[in-house]
Amino acid sequence: MRETETEAGADSGSTGKRPLGVGMVGYAFMGAAHSQGWRTVGRVFDLPVRPVLSAVCGRDGGAVRAAADRLGWAAAETDWRALIARDDVDLVDICTPGDSHAEIALAALEAGKHVLCEKPLANTVEEAEAMAEAAERARARGQVAMVGFNYRRVPALALARRMVAGGRLGALRHVRLTYLQDWLVDASFPLTWRLRKDRAGSGALGDLGAHIVDLAQYLVGEPVAGVSALTETFVRERPLLEGASSGLTAEGGSRLGTVTVDDAAVFTARFPSGALASFEATRFAAGRKNALRLEINGSEGSLAFDLERLNELSFHDHTEPAASSGFRRILVTEPDHPYVDAWWPPGHGLGYEHTFVHQARDLLQAIATGARPEPSFADGLSVQRVLAAVEESAAKNSVYTLIPA
Amino acid sequence: MRETETEAGADSGSTGKRPLGVGMVGYAFMGAAHSQGWRTVGRVFDLPVRPVLSAVCGRDGGAVRAAADRLGWAAAETDWRALIARDDVDLVDICTPGDSHAEIALAALEAGKHVLCEKPLANTVEEAEAMAEAAERARARGQVAMVGFNYRRVPALALARRMVAGGRLGALRHVRLTYLQDWLVDASFPLTWRLRKDRAGSGALGDLGAHIVDLAQYLVGEPVAGVSALTETFVRERPLLEGASSGLTAEGGSRLGTVTVDDAAVFTARFPSGALASFEATRFAAGRKNALRLEINGSEGSLAFDLERLNELSFHDHTEPAASSGFRRILVTEPDHPYVDAWWPPGHGLGYEHTFVHQARDLLQAIATGARPEPSFADGLSVQRVLAAVEESAAKNSVYTLIPA
Amino acid sequence: MRETETEAGADSGSTGKRPLGVGMVGYAFMGAAHSQGWRTVGRVFDLPVRPVLSAVCGRDGGAVRAAADRLGWAAAETDWRALIARDDVDLVDICTPGDSHAEIALAALEAGKHVLCEKPLANTVEEAEAMAEAAERARARGQVAMVGFNYRRVPALALARRMVAGGRLGALRHVRLTYLQDWLVDASFPLTWRLRKDRAGSGALGDLGAHIVDLAQYLVGEPVAGVSALTETFVRERPLLEGASSGLTAEGGSRLGTVTVDDAAVFTARFPSGALASFEATRFAAGRKNALRLEINGSEGSLAFDLERLNELSFHDHTEPAASSGFRRILVTEPDHPYVDAWWPPGHGLGYEHTFVHQARDLLQAIATGARPEPSFADGLSVQRVLAAVEESAAKNSVYTLIPA
Amino acid sequence: MRETETEAGADSGSTGKRPLGVGMVGYAFMGAAHSQGWRTVGRVFDLPVRPVLSAVCGRDGGAVRAAADRLGWAAAETDWRALIARDDVDLVDICTPGDSHAEIALAALEAGKHVLCEKPLANTVEEAEAMAEAAERARARGQVAMVGFNYRRVPALALARRMVAGGRLGALRHVRLTYLQDWLVDASFPLTWRLRKDRAGSGALGDLGAHIVDLAQYLVGEPVAGVSALTETFVRERPLLEGASSGLTAEGGSRLGTVTVDDAAVFTARFPSGALASFEATRFAAGRKNALRLEINGSEGSLAFDLERLNELSFHDHTEPAASSGFRRILVTEPDHPYVDAWWPPGHGLGYEHTFVHQARDLLQAIATGARPEPSFADGLSVQRVLAAVEESAAKNSVYTLIPA
Asked: What is the DSSP pairing of strand A301-306 with strand C301-306?
């Protein structure tokens, strides 16, 4: 048995290519998913650079060292500033809660590093504006900054975008998106950081709503013009956490604390080109585990999608004879579909985590080619402005609230 | 061959029972559907009275006589006042556009007749109020007045109501309903009466939105508290009609006229008990033919339904162990399901028109027993108030608009 | 209230047209379904003749008079020979168990009457041969004889036939059909006539298998060449009936009797043109209520159908680019679809019973025009031969058994 | 940038644990999928040993070195005997066509190595018997041999097994499985090794049929008793390959060669406990990409599954009241579901390749604990016997053919 790999970080494929060191901050749910992306991307895609999992950062030294070992990172750090400072870190991948995004991202850009930042970009529009400006300045220096709206990388949704952009739907009339989960239905679920406004910024709105706002803007190809919103917190007090919590699972104690974020947000919107939109984000839809569902209706066709069946895209071609038309279920596993040719034969579906592999691939391509990354921090800011307008409308009796350009 | 039936109206079953004469105004799409209901109800259900199709009324004498012959009505009238006056008409069934509902219904109630009135109850809240008041007065005289929200009679939706009322969903959190059709996607579809505010009152809102508002209130068991709305007319000019139009099919000429109703309405709402709701009614959802879809999420379960699959109800029981729970597809064709035992064995589904048979059955039961009919004119008025609030909110920058009690 | 209709049978539409008297034998499940067809057909379709429900026949005088009254038949008879002899009966509709089909049909044809006979055509090939020969002789005298494979009249299946015949599927490779029900899963369900070989001829095979064999031959457009089969009776003893049974519901007592028919039949087959087929008919598929499911795969496309969603046909066009192809759900409610233009607007689905309205329409058209009816008694005989070959193969160690031409 | 990882094989997690060297033979479709499994398993599951990707073997030296680099193997070999002989190879993973399975596996077992062998176990029953015997002897020496029926590791199917074994379905009555693909519908698809009997052993039967036979035996919990079969080769000549082919994609030239395997196999079967089964394996089902579908009906419930929606299991509980029962869609992404707790939160689905991660995990567990691996070579032999009986029955006029115990 050769043992030379000891302590070595996973090296994702293609010896001989220029290495690009990644440093990741945070290693919970998102960190694990990103790690899988970094480990796998070079084994599947033919990349211009070779990503190396250089170091991962967390506050608890023992825990972060264990995470590094398990997830395949060569080193562990307990101070994100030290992580950014490392020579073997070319790209900083931010997987922390939203309250620390701005500080870390600004420092990393300042240090000349590329940045991948989890969504939502920030907890406030002001932070997001600063980040977008910093990213724009950094871009002049050859740095790339991307925000982690990973669902753009579901092949079915990338295909949807291709079809809309290619005119298959004609003029868009309706856009409706829901993102339904149910992990807060149980009133005894404890008060984790995701339910605290100071950490998470908002609740279902920023967590789930951010995804569907980004997807709507991505698919339609223009920003939302204005919104009218209702938000609600159904369960206003929950057990305070005792001990550690990780991601979406946690145990609460007997003392109660106040939930300071929304449980659900329902809003309508207009797009500049005339389409009407409706959005719903909630953690209270019993039985819906990850139901990011969308439908777009145009003058020449319609598309529908459900993240719980992520290998499928439903398409109706309205230019066909009525007698043989209908919504068809495209199994998005063909070589001609986005990202798919690198994977398996037709019908051998992908899963959730593949979005992170694809995200890594697109980011590395952008770094190598100098292309503008998508979604950029500007795109993240655009989403942030919609979220802020939703909160403003909800606070002002649902009045239709324009989004600043 | 015996020929004694000549000119006789169809007699729906059960010789020897007390006959109840029906007179119907209008014989287009709705008239044909109601006729099927009246002809069939006594052949399938064991009724306390025997409905007789006495007379049908329309303005064109030749056309209405042909309709009477085809649809099974014993006589034809060209003046609805004459129809109401007939001795063999005990019940007046109003299947005309909304602008004539109030006048006919008030006259029929005044004449001591029972009334079934198609939805929406009226074109304005004022008319609806007058009708509801008249119905209340008539009720003291033993008359029954019902509004034709026939979808309450889909067995799956009646079952849904039974399950919500029985507590299977716990506390309701979310209600979302869409009613999507696509017959206006084609910009050359002509300007029929349904696109004229003076005849139809409103567009998708009153036609489709009325159904989903009524269903939401029926299923939740309480009236909507307030709404925030957007409406839109995507195609503002359409070919003027040349010659006759019937129902949903028509041909237009080369001259254009202005569409004076909404093509689509999107609105959010709150229920008094705290549930958030969203509604969408449109005739511009390419590929969706009759997609009245709804989902209700509660603390102990969820329900989902799609009118395009009307024999199915989807139910998630959130009190079950997570490892074996999920949305189940109840095929609503069991003897224990509402209305079903009168029909066929399990799995032998019903269709759209059966809602009118069930409606006739419930109305005749109410007449025979003196029970308050559901949905009453008061229920129709309640829907009308929501529709008016939707229009008001849409006109006032989507501001949240309370519904008067 | 006019009372002149008393005792009159329902007259299905179109006064002034030539009347055609129908006499029906049997009034249980099938009789009720046929009655709905006869009552409705002239109200919906523009027919060349006017069907009149002249008389219904059953052995129990009181019960048949009550059925006549409820179902809309003008008279009741207790002897089917008397029914056939009536002057006001031009068409004899046989809705009895299979053991009496041959005798009644032969007598009716002999008497110069048209005949509609429920499926399966007979209990033996010999009977079916005699019936087909008699029908052929009667055809020379202008009489029409049809067998009641009503599922050919589901619009989606008529559309499927149109698409296969029009070459949309190319060369056929695979045909697979199942007909799954579950009403015998409960071992305490009693020994009704459907479980007795002397009455029913066979079990799931003749009841359900007959339908899918006929559909396969109809859709493929040629007879089955040979079969290899397994049959099974899972529950060999059941409670003997106490008191009356009607159709699919009954109550058993404490004494047990022997089930003499198959509970399930599974068989494979070849078509002359080279397609492979598989069939499964069972009453033991827990949770499947009426799952007549089929899929056909050809070199240029595929079709799929499920009777539990009878308004839908699933179609894959294999000549389309792979990137946007997939099984599309055609909602078979468009005016261009078979039978549909007589009914409701798109999306307003039909139910099980409409197949009997369509069957009545096609039969009356055949009578009026002299066209060869489909499915003819010869088609019924063809199915009978396949069923016999299935039983023969099952008895001979599943050996592949050719069907005589 | 540290570069010490150069040439190092990927080390799948958990530094400090006992390393276990893997050597893989073959690196096409299956080799790539297995590599993903070996690279990932230690990053996700907490394992008793640490798998190291020591060496990969292929005949073309340049190609195998490129594959090693891309897929993460530390070394490349061109002779499988050399691979087996390596000190750093503890486990031999055989991903070649079926004609070389026996020779490699026997040599590896002889050399004291653990073995994972792709399915089908061999091309003949004789080879499979020798392999099963060798595996049994090796087991006495502490070696583990597993056959790669990876679909047992789809969480939904592992859950299905758990439910059947736990009695949730009661006595089993029906088992039906299809495995439908369509990559041979195009008659110009060339004559790859998968279409040659000398390489592949059989066609759809061994490739797809092997999977569904194994799954049926796994889920039912007993071996098939006997079969009756039809097989067919629809397209008997195809273009000969020009140049290299890899896996399922290839280009043919203008000369034709003879297809020597089946395109499709359809067979019925009995299980010892009395259940009837039907199987269909085909590469000619246009539009079906990977439709491994199954349904099992028992006296107390039913299960259904479709590999194209691999995160879902459909379950009907027949012990529930009929009014609220129906097939429920279990999203198999809950922590209580097999394999799932190591991955993502509920609703974040897995893909095809995860079956190989799970397979690696189960194999490593068996190696560490000494438990009998499942599926064993004996299980592979059992499948092989069914495949042989299918071919025998098809050659003997479909006669029911018993499987030797």
From this structure: unpaired
Residue B356, in any domain of the structure: no
Taking 80 as the threshold, does the pLDDT of residue B63 lie above it?
yes
Rounded Cα distance, C77 and C72, in Å: 14
Residue D1 lies in a domain: no
Interchain CB contacts (distance < 8 Å): A and B: 145
Whether the bond into A120 is cis, omega within 30 of 0: yes
**Domain boundary residue, one of C103, C120, C150:** C150
Question: How far apart (Å, rounded) are the C-alpha atoms in residues C66 and B364?
Answer: 21
Is the pLDDT reported for residue C399 higher than 60? Answer: yes
Q: Which residues, at least 6 apart from A366, have a Cβ–Cβ distance to it below 8 Å?
A: A144, A146, A372, A373
Domain, as residue range, for B89: 18-151
Q: Residue B63 belongs to a domain with what CATH number?
A: 3.40.50.720
Structural tokens at position A278:
């409706």
**Chain centre to alpha carbon of residue D84:** 22
- Nearest Cα to Cα of residue D394 among D228, D151, D177: D228
| D282–chain C Cβ distance below 8 A for any pair | yes
Give the pLDDT confidence of C241-293 residue by residue, as tens digits: 876 555 455 667 789 999 999 999 999 999 999 999 999 999 999 999 999 99
At residue B144, φ and ψ (nearest 5 deg) are: -115, 135
Q: CB contact, 8 Å: D234 with chain C?
A: yes
SS3 D6: coil
Give the single-character DSSP code of D318.
Answer: T
- The span from the CA of C15 to the CA of B266, in Å, is 48
DSSP D351: -
- B137: phi then psi, degrees, rounded to nearest 5: -65, -45
The residue type at D378: A
Beta strands B226-232; B401-402: pairing state:
antiparallel
Q: Which residue has the tokens 């001609």?
A: A336
Hey, are the CB atoms on A351 and D354 less than 8 Å from each other? yes
E-state strands within A287-326:
291-298, 301-306, 312-317
Query: Looking at the whole model, is its pTM more than 0.90?
Result: yes
- Model pLDDT for residues C27-58, shown as the tens digit of each residue: 999 999 999 999 999 999 999 999 999 999 99
Instruction: Please identify which residue in the block is written with the tokens 């399915």.
Output: D119
Nearest to B194 by CA among B127, B128, B263, B129: B263
CB atoms within 10 A of CB B246: 12
Average pLDDT of span D375-380: 98
User: C1 in a domain, yes or no?
Assistant: no
CA dihedral D253, D255, D261, D267 (to 10 degrees): 80
DSSP line for A282-297 = ES--TT-SSEEEEEEE
Q: How many domains does chain A have?
A: 2
pLDDT value of residue C93 = 98
Q: Which residues contact D204 (CB under 8 A, 6 or more apart)?
A: D179, D181, D261, D262, D263, D264, D265, D281, D282, D283
**Contact at 8 Å (CB) between D85 and A34?**
no
A114 and A212 assigned to the same domain: no
pLDDT in tens, B83-133: 999 999 999 999 999 999 999 999 999 999 999 999 999 999 999 999 999
| Residue A2 maps to a domain | no
Through-space distance between the first and last CA atoms of chain D, rounded to whole angstroms? 60
* Nearest partner of C86 among C96, C97, C98, C73, judged by Cα: C73
Are residues C271 and C383 located together in one domain of the fold?
A: yes
A1 contacts D52? CB cut-off 8 A: yes
Asked if A212 is an interface residue toward chain B (Cβ–Cβ < 8 A), one would say: no
Q: Does C314 touch chain B (CB under 8 A)?
A: no
Residues A192 and A319 in one domain: yes
- Cβ(D225)–Cβ(D403) below 8 Å: yes
- Chain C residue with CA closest to A335: the answer is C323
What is the C-alpha separation between A333 and A346, in angstroms, rounded? 5
Distance CA D97, CA A308 (A): 35
CATH number at residue A167: 3.30.360.10
Rg (CA), chain D: 21
